Each structure stands twice: as C-alpha cells, then as structure tokens.
Amino acid sequence: MTSTAQAPTPGVPTAHPDHLGHVIFIAAAAAMGGFLFGYDSSVINGAVEAIRDRYDIGSAALAQVIAIALIGCAIGAATAGRIADRIGRIRCMQIAAGLFTVSAVGSALPFALWDLALWRIIGGFAIGMASVIGPAYIAEVAPPAYRGRLGSFQQAAIVVGIAISQLVNWGLLNAAGGDQRGKLMGLEAWQVMLGVMVVPAVLYGLLSFAIPESPRFLVSVGKRERAKEILEEVEGKDVDFDARIAEIEHAMHREEKSSFKDLLGGSFFFKPIVWIGIGLSVFQQFVGINVAFYYSSTLWQSVGVDPTQSFFYSFTTSIINIIGTVIAMIFVDRIGRKPLALIGSAGMVVGLALEAWAFSSPLVDGKLPATQGWVALVAAHVFVLFFALSWGVVVWVFLGEMFPNRIRAAALGVAASAQWIANWAITASFPSLADWNLSGTYVIYAVFAALSIPFVLKFVKETKGKSLEEMG
User: Fold this and answer.
1) At 58, is the pLDDT very low, low, confident or very high (cuts 50, 70, 90)?
2) pTM of the full predicted structure?
3) What is the domain partition of the chain in residue ranges?
4) Could you give the angle at which helices 272-286 and 391-401 cross, rounded to 10 degrees?
5) Do residues 357 and 444 make contact, with C-beta atoms less than 8 angstroms apart?
6) What is the pLDDT of residues 300-328, one digit of tens each?
7) In whole angstroms, what separates CA 446 from the centre of its chain?
8) At the top level of CATH, which class does the domain 17-211+257-471 belong to?
C-alpha cells in the first residue's frame, strides 16, 4: 500500500507505509481461519444429494446432518474468547487448525451417518473458534486507521474459501462423470470433496507459527517489552509506545473481571449494546444467505437445472460474493460501516423479492419457465452481491469494534454464538420450508432484509475511525 492510501484519522495512531506489508501478511495469515470457515461450511453443498442417496434419508434428517456443524460453531464461538484469553490467540488458532484437519479426514472416511455428523460437529467447533479469533486478533494487531480494511480480510478469506470449495467440487464432479457418488481415488466423489480440506487446514497451522501474538494478550500476561516490539512491527517507530502500552494496560485492567455476568443489565436481561450485536448477527443470517452456499446445487436441481450446471452456478455465485466483498473492503473505511449496511439491505430486498416471484411460477416439465428461470438466476446473484458488499463484511467489522473494552471478549462470543444459532435455524429449516413453499420461503427472507433497515437506522452507531479504547 502506498502513500495514496486513506489519510489517517486525526489523533489515531497509524502504521508507516514501510510496515503495512508486514501488517497485511499478519492479517492475511490470521484470516486463513476465515478461509477454512468458508471452505468447511460450504463444501457440504457438493455432498448434499449424495448423502441423501447413500444413507436413504428424507429432507428433515438431511437438514440435521447439514446443519449439525452449526451447533459445533456456536459452542466454538462461545468458548473461543475464554480459551484465547487463557492461552493466547496464536495457540487458539493452532487448536482450530488441528480440529479442521481431524474433521476433514473423518468426514471423508465416515463409517455411518452418525460419525459423519460427529466429524461435522468437530469441524463446526473449529469454524466457531476461527469466527471469533480471526476478527478479534486482527482488530487487536491492526493500526486503527487501517483496521476496517484489515478486519475485512476475515470476510474476504471466507468468501474466497467458499468460492474455492465450489470450484474444487465442480472439478471433482466432472472428474467423476457428473455423479456425486462416482468413484474417485478409491472413494466416492463427495468423500474426496470433504477430504480436500486437509490441505488448507495444515497451511493454517503452519502460518500460525509465522505471526506474532496479540500485543493486548502479551500485556495481559505481563510481557510488556514483547508487546512493544510487536507494536513497533505493526505501527512503526513514530509512536509513543509507553503511552500505547499504558492505554492497553488501562483497557485490560477494566477487562480483568469480564465475564458473562458483565453482559447482564437493562430491562431485557442483556445490556442494550449486547442486544445490538445479537441483532446484527441474527439479521445477517435470517436473510437466508447460507441457503445460497449450503443448498444452492440442490436448489437449482429442484427447478430443473442439471447437476453439473448447478455446481457451476454455485461457483459463479461465489465469484460474485468475492466481487462484493472487494467492494466492501474498498469502501468500509471510506463511507463507513452503517451506510454500507443500509445499501446492502435495500439491494437484498430487491433480489430476494425477485427470487420469490420467480419461484412462485409452476414448473413446466420439471423446470421453471425460461423467463422465471433467468430472473431467479440473476436475482440470486444480485442478492449475493448486495449481501457481500455490506452485511457480509460490516457485521464482522462491527463485532470486532463496537463493544466496550471491559466486555468485548464476552460480548463478541455471545454475538457470534447468536449468529451460529441463527445460521442453524435457517439451514435446518430450509429443506422442509422449500418442500412446503419455495416462493414463500424467499418472501420470509425478504421480510427480514427489509426489517434490517429500521434496525440499523435506529440502533447501530458508526464505529469508523475510532480506536478500540474509545468504545468504552
């Protein structure tokens, strides 16, 4: 990044350009957990119909196998903050990498449906850990003036992981002759799809040894000199490091007794700021975004698209997801988090409403009529684009920034857990809802997208340009 980068916010420490390359590497390495998050959560898209066929199960049971990983996600997200506070952010990343590896091997070689579900829970626990540790670590290491863009690395890595998983699935499906249960390397194609995740899981583990521990964690365990060294690495030499350490120590002192109890208060159990974080997490999922990544191949096949083409459409949707995320990364520190969220909500309402209209048409010879088919396909891409350039990025940035220091770790864990529970609710309900009324299902998602607009306008405050210590 050159001197043409965004001008620093007055009074906020920034990084000298010479240090930005190193900071970007650190953020990208930490965001590898996000890549695995995206890869592991969406790779199942390529195995849905094969699992249904191999184990001869209906929509309700299938949904539970697909969604059960999200229970592990919720547990991992709820506990990751405490684990990281005890043993450090880097050790937490290494544990997650190990769990991703074990999950990939087990999922590729299941004995029965029950242990496939078990391996998915283990993978889900790792995803939940990565969902908390990635943004928290990046927020703690990144200079404030660049924190929005560096924080968005997490979502960028997630969407790249989703896209790569769909590309790998498409390639493996073609190699197996278009049959998810076709033989490939002595296994069925869907098993190979799930097993390939071993490669990025091992890479994540290796990268975790190449990045420094969070200065805030080091200060919390009394390693002030090492914390200064790392701050110099990421913020340059033109900073009063004694003042920065004192600022962090003051914030950490206020966090010392941080616990779930500190989140309680107000008229409705939690403090208002915690409810706002929960609300952001729930709205992010209740628009139905993960239906596009867990079930898109099945969805397109249900309206008459052949399997190979449906996998290709899943991949193109993932590319649109990347494009939207890049747009968000460019603008999140320029126009702010809140305006992006509002723009995205409006666009999602349009996309989801058009999908609902298209899917309301009766099938002709097992397919949507040509006009409705094209509208459904374009609208699906419009929906994903507007989600990616807004809620996909800004929610993670908000959750890393919005809470006061004294409750940040606990509040982030609760909000992330709420996100996974909401994700589970959408994922587990979609097959049965689609069997009931596919168009009606998309109307429900469109309503939640519309409701997110007044929620953001009334309750969400901008965090652009503020240091973490200013939040409380």
Assistant:
1) confident
2) 0.75
3) 17-211+257-471
4) 160
5) no
6) 877 777 777 888 888 888 899 889 988 98
7) 21
8) mainly alpha
